[in-house]
Automatic annotation (TrEMBL), chain A:
Coiled coil: none annotated. The lineage of its organism: Bacteria, Bacillati, Bacillota, Bacilli, Bacillales. This is Nitrous oxide reduction protein. It comes from Mesobacillus boroniphilus. InterPro entries: N2O_reductase_NosL. Keywords: Signal. Residues 1-23 form the signal peptide. The keyword Signal applies. It comes from the Bacteria. PROSITE patterns: PROKAR_LIPOPROTEIN.
UniProtKB/TrEMBL annotation, chain B:
The gene is nosD. This is Nitrous oxide reductase family maturation protein NosD. Keywords: Membrane, Repeat, Transmembrane, Transmembrane helix, Ubl conjugation pathway. Pathway: Protein modification; protein ubiquitination. Residues 43-187, 248-357 form the Carbohydrate-binding/sugar hydrolysis domain. SUPFAM superfamilies: Pectin lyase-like (SSF51126). It comes from the Bacteria. The chain crosses the membrane at residues 424-442. SMART domains: CASH (SM00722), PbH1 (SM00710). PANTHER family: F-BOX ONLY PROTEIN (PTHR22990), F-BOX ONLY PROTEIN 10 (PTHR22990:SF15).
Length: 154, 447
């Protein structure tokens, strides 16, 4: 009996530990069930979605980079790199990129789900191309993004 | 003399009136095989273009004041590229067409109206289009009785039924929208009336973003993920809508987020995962609604300020309320709401219970922190817990209460009043049945 319980306990430990995400990798978006952890909106526009993955394996999902920023302002402990990684997606390919390495195109007229006008790309070239295509905007790297004044006014 | 010439004078005057109309407003007819675009190009302001039944494979650009009327079976097919019809002129009419196969770009639409005012789009059927009707930077357009469906893919790949971007003053009535992303999307708009529309099988029935002064009345939203999604908006009135069957596991009947001055009155909010949710709602007034048969009737999250609830019926919700966040009062000082799980008495006979109804329970608070504990819903331990909490109310989380709970449900609709008259007949039959039973019993004994 005790042995059986022991096995059961071991198994449950196994199940629990396999759930944790030690590599801090982002997770695929499921538009059917995932909603933004800040504003509750469904993540229908998958390529604009962003994620925070904590060292404890907790994953937070957001409908765009502005909502993620709002979340980080509330949860100041997650702002450091060691406790959580922040991911954005290349809007063309949907590839996950760490926020620090992404280049963002910004113009208040750019469309994003929560209308803050910041669209992310995997390299500077793609961001510049997007700006050229739209005929407006500027490139924000991570440094510039940190100083960026988030707003919804157009 | 004047008596004789007067009719002639009037006749002559009328002729003068008629002549210019005849020369200016012409009626073209486009037959199958001809081009609608060519007809538009050769027409003048004020002309009417009649489209005969048939399949027209083209994209049409309307840049002058014309009316386009489709006879039954007139179909314009965009061939899967761009917009099917683009409107850049004001005062046009598009009536009775079937419009299909737009491109799949984010703004590709069945009808795309750009910077154009006072147009009437009515009785059209739009199908297999990315967006149905897209109104950008336009004012005072009327969209009446159109039927809109998008393509067959998942809602994350589809566009919206009607997307309104900037501008305002529109009137939308009697549109039938199904299988799109969001039924009607209000994006930085104001001053819009939306009446008697129906939206089903989509992500959000109506989606209000950064919008102001919108009246939504007598609409029916059903079987979407969420019925009404209201975010960062102000002055939104919901009156007599039906919000039903939103059973998606993260679905809501009405979700109000960071929004001010909302009126929710006389709506039926039935059979949703969560009926009504407020998160950072300010100055909302919620009265005379039927909030029934939802899994969670009422939800509060975060900080909500200055909201009044009165004369709502909370009936048969699996969980009446789920509350986290700030303290709040759920009555307007005179009248509160009817809660079918209220268990105190009305001793003074004024229709208001003597003890306050306390919303939310400790279990709700636990669920907020540990969503998986839902597994223990209705388990003996949770029941015991809730009961203990009822005995010692200080246990509870945020102090949300209705100080003037009603002991009888509020009668809201005419139908319900008529029902009470119909009860006479079953009552009579019941009495007869009882009399007959007593007769049988008494007789039976004697034998």
């Amino acid at each position: 009996m005790v042995k059986k319980l022991g096995v059961l306990l071991m198994m449950s430990v196994g199940v629990v530990s396999s759930c944790s995400n030690s590599a801090m990798e982002p997770e695929e978006i499921n538009p059917e069930i995932d909603v933004c952890d800040v504003c509750n909106m469904g993540l229908a526009h998958e390529h604009y979605a962003t994620e925070i993955v904590t060292a404890d394996g907790e994953i937070y999902k957001f409908d765009d980079i502005g909502c993620m920023n709002e979340f980080l302002e509330m949860e100041t402990s997650l702002q450091e790199e060691s406790t959580a990684k922040k991911y954005v997606r290349d809007v063309d390919t949907g590839e996950w990129i760490e926020l620090e390495k992404a280049y963002n195109a910004y113009h208040p007229e750019f469309w994003t789900p929560m209308a803050n006008g910041v669209v992310s790309f995997k390299d500077k070239e793609s961001a510049e191309n997007y700006i050229k295509e739209q005929g407006m905007g500027e490139v924000l790297d991570y440094k510039a993004l940190k100083k960026h004044d988030w707003s919804w006014e157009r | 003399m004047w008596r004789l010439t007067r009719p002639f004078a009037i006749y002559f005057f009328l002729l003068l009136l008629l002549v210019p109309i005849n020369t200016y407003a012409e009626e073209f007819k486009v037959e199958a095989g001809q081009s609608i675009q060519r007809a538009v190009d050769s027409s003048r302001n004020g002309d009417t273009i009649l489209i005969s039944p048939g399949l027209y494979k083209e994209s049409v650009m309307i840049n002058k004041e014309v009316s386009i009327k489709g006879e039954k079976g007139a179909i314009i097919d965009g061939g899967g590229r761009g917009n099917v019809i683009i409107v850049t002129a004001s005062n046009i009419v598009i009536d009775g067409l079937t419009i299909q196969n737009s491109g799949s770009g984010q703004e590709d639409s069945g009808i795309h109206i750009k910077k154009a005012d006072r147009n009437v789009i009515q009785n059209n059927i739009l199908k297999n289009v990315q967006n149905g009707i897209y109104l950008a930077n336009s004012n005072e357009n009327k969209l009446l009785g159109n039927s809109i469906t998008s393509n067959k893919s998942h809602f994350s790949k589809r566009g919206n039924g009607i997307h309104i971007f900037k501008g305002g003053g529109h009137f939308l009535k009697g549109n039938e929208i199904e299988s799109v992303q969001d039924g009607i999307y209000f994006d930085f708009t104001s001053g819009i009336q939306v009446s008697e529309n129906h939206v089903g099988e989509s992500r959000y029935g109506m989606h209000f973003m950064f919008s102001d002064e919108i009246l939504a009345e007598r609409n029916h939203v059903e079987k979407n993920v969420t019925g009404f999604m209201v975010m960062d908006s102000a002055h939104i009135d919901f009156i007599q809508n039906k919000v039903t069957d939103h059973f998606h596991f993260r679905g809501y009947g009405i979700l109000i987020y960071e929004t001010k001055n909302v009126l929710v009155e006389g709506n039926e909010i039935l059979r949703n995962s969560t009926g009504l949710s407020l998160e950072y709602g300010v100055n909302t007034s919620i009265k005379r609604n039927q909030i029934a048969a939802n899994q969670v009737g009422l939800e509060f999250m975060g900080k909500n300020e200055n909201n009044t609830f009165s004369e709502n019926n909370f009936i048969g919700n699996v969980v009446q309320s789920k509350i986290s966040g700030e303290d709040m009062r759920l009555d307007d000082g005179v009248k509160g709401n009817y809660w079918d799980d209220y268990s105190s008495f009305d001793l003074s006979g004024d229709g208001v219970g003597e003890e306050a109804y306390k919303a939310g329970s400790l279990y709700d608070r636990l669920l907020r922190k540990q969503p998986y504990w839902q597994f223990f819903f209705e388990s003996p331990s949770i029941k015991l817990w809730t009961k203990a909490e009822a005995l010692f109310p200080s246990f509870g989380a945020a102090d949300v209460y209705d100080a003037r709970p009603l002991v009888e449900p509020v009668t809201m609709f005419q139908e319900t009043e008529q029902h009470s008259k119909d009860r006479l007949m079953p009552g009579l039959i019941g009495i007869l049945f009882v009399v007959f039973s007593i007769f049988v019993i008494v007789k039976g004994r004697k034998l």
